[in-house]
Amino acid sequence: MPNNEADHPRRPRRSQEARSAETRGKLIAATLDVLLAEGYHALTTQRICDVAGVSRGAMLHHFPSKVSLVVTAIDHLLTTATEEIRDQAKRVHGGEISLEAFLDYLWREQFSGRLFYLTLEHVTLARTHDEIRAPLIPVVKRFHAALDETWTEVFPTTSLAPGGIATVLNLTLCLMRGMGLQTVLRPNDDAYYQSLLSAWKALLPGVVEGRFPLSPSALSPLSPVPSPTPRSAR
């Protein structure tokens, strides 16, 4: 008789660490999917477990509360976005794509889709939930610090004063956040958003090259994000 075990060798068992990482990944993905599609009001731990296909006991083993899961999921979201943005910035630095193409990428992939709307959810949530706001502040600070570093890679040399590149970065991000916010109540108006993006594309090189100088006060280092104040103390 044929040796079935020889013909079909057993697949090696995955380690506990690998199974644990898979479970965490499912829970994080489910949290972001529910948050995006249904909002925080529908984000119960049972709903997350159902979407992830994970038992409640397994969820509690990895995340003791819904808040810890939400914060971890947002941290994962922003870390992934940072890596993707850094990859595109390296392409600009290497001459593979233009600055204009990089701005198109930021708008298309980061500020008019999944990342932005999830950001909108957690920012709105943090405004009224101190238990989420406090742990999210260092997460967002790391995200902005990574973006500052990435932006410097796009413009390794510039005539701007120290701190100027960070200011220009935040001008760009604030513009795109505002545009993204408008898409909620002004959808399907691509011509409008492209006109704003085109205007910034025309202005940005002149700002970076010093042809449109910003005031010295505008180029000072950015102030650190203050520590959260509990609402009970306000």
Automatic annotation (TrEMBL):
Chain residue ranges for the region called Disordered: 1-22
Highest taxon of the lineage: Bacteria
MF terms in GO: DNA-binding transcription factor activity; transcription cis-regulatory region binding
HTH tetR-type domain ranges (all copies): 21-81
SUPFAM superfamilies the UniProt entry points to: Homeodomain-like
Keywords: DNA-binding
Ranges of the DNA-binding region feature: 44-63
The protein, known as: Transcriptional regulator, TetR family
Origin species: Rhodospirillum rubrum (strain ATCC 11170 / ATH 1.1.1 / DSM 467 / LMG 4362 / NCIMB 8255 / S1)
